[in-house]
Amino acid sequence: MPTAKEIGACLNDSTRENLLASLSAVHTDNSLLITTREVSKLLNYLTPFLALRAKGGLEKTLLIDDVTSVEEFRSMCSAYKAFTVIMAGNDDGISHLKRLWSVLDHKQSATINLIIKDFGKAFYDLLLLDVLLLKNSSFEQFSGLDRAGLIIRLTSNCNLLPWKVYPTLIHDFVFSLNMAHGGLPAYLENPLEVESCLNTMIVDILSATTSLPEVMKVKNVFSKGDHSSLLVRNFLDDKFCDLLSQFSYPQQEFYLKKLSGNTDLVVLERNIDYFPLILTPMNYMGLLDETFGVEDELNSILSTKDVMDDELYQSLKHLNFGSIGVKLNTLAKMLQLELENSDNTQDLAKIKQLMKNLGSLTSKQEMVRKHTRLSETILERIKSNTDSGTKFDSRQIWLELQNEIFELDYKNQLKKLHSMIDQCFPFEILMGLVVLISIINDGIRQNDMDHITKSFQLSFGLRSSLILRKLFDHNIIKVNTKGSDFFGSFTFAKTEIETTTVSTLAKTSGGSQTDHDVGYEDVAAVGVSSGQDVYKSTYTLISKFWNLHPVEEEQAPGQAMAIELPLDYKQPSFALPSATVPLTARLLEALYTRDFLTYKPVNNTLRRPNWNNLNLETMLKGLAIDKNICDNLENRKLSSEKRKIEQKYVILVLLGGVTKSEISVFQHLQAKLDKQILVVTTGVVNNQDFWETMK
């Protein structure tokens, strides 16, 4: 059974080989490598610079976004006759190339080799028109390009080499495109681009397993949300054919008719649940990101320059921050005891063995010291708020409020908000509280929203109005027009779960779709924006039904079990405040087990994974797909052991990025469900990315 690590290594090898082949094809001695800081992170992740230098004849590297002076830039470039330029095939890449072209002395006829990551027609059009200033028909030229060839000749001294980059594996089982801000802006503003990129990623991952001992084949597909379902339909209608085209005819016959399916494809999107973006993560890896920031996600480097690649970090990163203090103290005492015992050793053989282990003990001690230092700094910043301009512990107050916000009523939530505005809390905390109040109460009443808007304008000026406008446009904050009178506080306009008895999807027990779900609910927004209001029921009812805030059973003193792994937590509620479980995690979990549905238990009557009788269409807007695509899983003659062997992998596609709190929750579910989960997404997203997107 290939692991995510083996699949990731296979994809990384292909990406690296593509790059080295391009460098070999344009090898020029004493050339200058020009790239960007973001692309350099990928280069460092794939291969040491010495390997790149040998393949491409590179003498020196220049990060173009680090050069601020035009004269400095021109001076550095004038010393070289050959340039190897590695850029991303997006708007940022075009901007950097325009800057490079403006300082080059084209009279010297320097050789320029452009290696473009994820080259496409949009980039080619801008390259010809805005950089090379060629006015010919770029459409005709692009259609006539030999893109199967390695080198595309643009001018007499400029060549272009497309660089196919495969998904990169980060954080155990997360395959990422590493898009800007986790891909959240692209998801909200250009969902078709995200859908296309993720579909290509799925094919790349499935293709990678054809060279491994066991091949992944999709058996069931599930999606909830209009853009999620669009992705699934395009995969089945288009991309699946691209996968088959890589095989010979006999291989296609075997793949389609003989090979058993072993993979479920589940596609969900960010507009289902914004809580993981607003709430402070409580797992160690999430708090490190929240407190210090990550400078290089691919190479696990914090902004403090600490590298998070040691074995101790791997054992701590998914745990709740409250669980790791005891573990660090225990490890420190054990290591100290071992070192003290070594001082009393007299036996020669034991001394020799000690000398061999001394380096290991010292390195372990350094690891414990590093993570103890980081943990203490996290606590210090939460309590003292030393890096902020406020005169009080705003972070601690905000964290405490997150742990009680779901228990407060609407009136007290607003009271807290206005009190914090008067105390001049940071903008992101105050606006985050507005988002929480809106989601929890299904909107904010118009009079209250007017008051909030005026308060923000007085405190923060025009930028608050612009951000509020964007939050309204994406339906993250809503105005509750039904809450202006006495009866408005009741849920007459919402769908009650208790009155619903129909199946979530109108389909047969075998999973074949009927005419019920042939169209998108909000067809006008499909392909334009993912900022849709997807809640049909009240959040209170959704939270109760899906058990989004499970109550932990109190244990007697001395009976609490030590936490060593994410599976040791009884509920996947350890990574967010208020014991919050991401709704995306519950939707995934419900396909395989329903033991967490305590408010209104629903039995699973089918053998195959499914969402039947879970009332998804009465609670959440958006098209849903639940389909078996390759064989009959409902065959009741199959033994439970046979079915367990067949169902091994889950490819979970998340449109709009994944948070580090969700990654830890999926790690918990992976162990609980006994399945290999592969998360496929545009990138890791956090609270800072969310607010940068809104700006």
From TrEMBL:
SUPFAM superfamilies: Sec1/munc18-like (SM) proteins. Gene3D superfamilies: 1.25.40.850, 3.40.50.1910, Syntaxin Binding Protein 1, Chain A, domain 2. GO terms for biological process: vesicle-mediated transport. Pfam families: Sec1. Signal peptide: none annotated. Belongs to the STXBP/unc-18/SEC1 family. This is Sec1 family protein. It comes from Metschnikowia aff. pulcherrima.
